[in-house]
Amino acid sequence: xxxxxxxxxxxxxxxxxxxxxxxxxxxxxxxxxxxxxxxxxxxxxxxxxxxxxxxxxxxxxxxxxxxxxxxxxxxxxxxxxxxxxxxxxxxxxxxxxxxxxxxxxxxxxxxxxxxx
Length: 116
Fold this sequence. Notes:
Layout: E1 3-7, E2 10-12, E3 18-25, E4 33-39, E5 46-51, E6 58-60, E7 68-73, E8 78-83, E9 92-99, E10 104-106, E11 110-114
Parallel strand pairs: 2-11
Antiparallel strand pairs: 1-3, 3-8, 4-5, 4-9, 5-6, 7-8, 9-10, 9-11
């Protein structure tokens, strides 16, 4: 059974940092593109960042503005999102996603709240 389990969410102050992690019980993890999405209250889910299966290609949403870094460890089946210089508008539920040509899997999400 495929499971993606996010962790690391919580409360941070503006300008602070959080590191999200996603542990995947996923056969052939290194064949999946891994992504982080987020969904704020009343808004649609949006892509934050994704990383290629080998970890050598990354892409970020414009709103990231160099503040976040996505990484993966294919030996541990994990993907992380280091978030620095957090802003109030980064408040959302953050979701891990794994996809290949035929399948897409989601985690349950982890809440990130940025508040002073």
